[in-house]
Amino acid sequence: MATNGNPIVTRLALIGIPLAVFVMGLKLLAWWVTGSVALLSDALESTVNVIAAVIAWGAIHYAARPADATHPFGHHKAEYFSAVIEGVLIVVAALLILQEAVPKLRAPTLLDQPVLGLAINLVAALLNAVWAAILIRVGRRHRSPALTADGHHILSDVVTSAGVLVGLLLALATGYAILDPVMAIFVALNIVFQGWKIISNSVSGLMDHAVDPAEEAAIKQAIAAHAEGSLGVHDLKTRRAGSATFIDFHLVVPAGMAVGDAHEICDRLEAAIESVQPGAQIAIHVEPETEKAHGIRVRVERAAP
């Protein structure tokens, strides 16, 4: 199946699956060695990471499919669905952690082989930290909601691991075994917060959110500087769908202007907008000066005679 997506994004999403499985294995090993409920909570979140990585790869692969008869604007929003599902899975992981941690408050136990277990968990956390930084950077650069959400999810896992390590070291230093389940509960609350952020950001994308103000200003500037020959632009609208940006507006021209001349202005405007929004899908509605203007106006700068 041919796709028109970014190969870097797709490749990273695919690599994330075996990496998530490997990290999960390390954390399960750390739990098995120590018997720590906090380390078990960390491992449970990594189980969700594996599922989320598979969903993210599937969504990115599907979103890369070209437009067709039933989806003429493409499949870009599939990535937002992936991010929403990932946010829900994060919340589910938090509930599983609470289920394990709360009963341990009544009968906490000290750890077995703590040094080995904490060392294994530290290695897993470092791997996740590096991978999260890569996913977030590439996801933002290529405007991939699924990849960015996966990176933030893994970053929350890193925070979880750091909290667990600190809590367990305190438990070992003080002899207070109850710090183990208490830390697991704090981990669960942090995970819920991270999940909520991912869900809210993704829902915003599903609602056709406009481009950032700075990007809109650059678009307006490009239009104003290259609309010579027209009488103005109005009803400018933008929306973001995954990695795709959609821009449309009305171009006012003199009533007697030839179609070819109006088309030349449109070509010039499309090239100018492409320079500030690479890959943007642009729709320009040409209308005569007798049409009543409405919406957002963009002033046209005229060259000095």
Automatic annotation (TrEMBL):
Membrane topology: Multi-pass membrane protein
Keywords: Membrane, Transmembrane, Transmembrane helix, Transport
UniProt cross-references to InterPro entries, sorted A to Z: Cation_efflux, Cation_efflux_CTD, Cation_efflux_CTD_sf, Cation_efflux_TM, Cation_efflux_TMD_sf, CDF_Transporter
Keyword Lipoprotein among record annotations: no
Keyword Transmembrane set for record: yes
UniProt similarity note: Belongs to the cation diffusion facilitator (CDF) transporter (TC 2.A.4) family.
Protein's name in the database: Cation diffusion facilitator family transporter
